[in-house]
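Bump. Still looking for Glycerol-3-phosphate transcriptional regulator protein structure tokens.
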Amino acid sequence: MSELSGSGGKKKEIRQQMLLQWIENSHYVSLEEIAERFRVTTQTARRDIADLEHQGKVRRLHGGVSQLAPLDPITYRQRRHDRADEKARIAEAVVALIPDNATIFLDTGTTCEAIANALVSRERLHVVTYSLRSAAIISEKTDFTLAVPGGFVRPIDGGMFQEDTPEFIRRFKFDYAIISVSGVDDDGDLCDDDHTEVAVV
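Sorry for the wait, here they are.
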């Protein structure tokens, strides 16, 4: 694809169109894959990603890019109420395993929000989360230490992300990590439909 490696307007436009189609088909593409496929530098690949993100067509991630696949706000609000009793029981079971003074990573999602509500029964926890909703719950507990990354807030579920979110989280040593997933496949592997969160956790 050397004919698409230039920075000229037409070549750039064609390359970005092909990149967008590739992202839509693959859902996630790494920076290195883009550079290799189109025979461009990683700087050019980053500029292409930035252009597409500015147009509102993709979501830039640490080390790559994913398609935009926002949840329906009504769907997410409904998920909060769906199986609320089961989520509360999960939260109670999880919190029963966590002692006071523990350092915890808490993921996003409606079940994790239920866990955040249950965590306030503990004392002097140190919590790291990129869930704005869970952070708001936990921040009410004055003896807790709360750390959140900066960045942009995903309006649907209140997840906060930026390019260096994984590095921010890696600064901490956790006693417990509470991870939410979208499902479990036939082999028992955990699955998530959001590559942003996969890159973080």
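The chain has nine helices and eleven strands.

Edit: fixed formatting.
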